[in-house]
Amino acid sequence: xxxxxxxxxxxxxxxxxxxxxxxxxxxxxxxxxxxxxxxxxxxxxxxxxxxxxxxxxxxxxxxxxxxxxxxxxxxxxxxxxxxxxxxxxxxxxxxxxxxxxxxxxxxxxxxxxxxxxxxxxxxxxxxxxxxxxxxxxxxxxxxxxxxxxxxxxxxxxxxxxxxxxxxxxxxxxxxxxxxxxxxxxxxxxxxxxxxxxxxxxxxxxxxxxxxxxxxxxxxxxxxxxxxxxxxxxxxxxxxxxxxxxxxxxxxxxxxxxx
Length: 258
Fold this sequence. Notes:
about 260 residues
């Protein structure tokens, strides 16, 4: 598909969804006036991440003080079923990230209310819920519909075990519409996992809002922080001491709110 055809398909896809008109207006503005936001400070962010990065195991054992066992070894049957569910899905979405880190940060704070932005197949949701269900906690998820892919909504969260879904509350809007709805139900959060709008400006807006809702002692996590300098700049502006975790050649940032 050519770029022009892709833009046209996306535009008409939005037109069919009045509930997504606010996000359509923001995308038009961003693509006309703010196209550089996605990669702002990328080179400095990559250097910063590389200099600070540790492995999943090192973070979990040295910072969280928990003996590291990979997530897929703790839940082997559920994990295998999830892999099969992804393989059966006829559409392509984002794959699994650092499932062990997501699981253990929820364990570390004994989370009852966690939030994630970005769901796709639901790998991160699966990892968070595996911890939350032990305490009958809730995971609140914000996920923008995949306008370019037919039937995508049928497969969002498809790897999440059915037995976990009573503890999952999904909002199918852009973050600027989803987050106020979520905050009406959960004004204080134990864990935040950010993995949605990857632009610099989008991150800074969401980071600020989500950080304010995170309780003291809670944990804030953001994926793909080497894409631009948003996480670095946010931490420096707040005087935060982040932990940088390298996983499959990418970087995630984690901050414990003191």
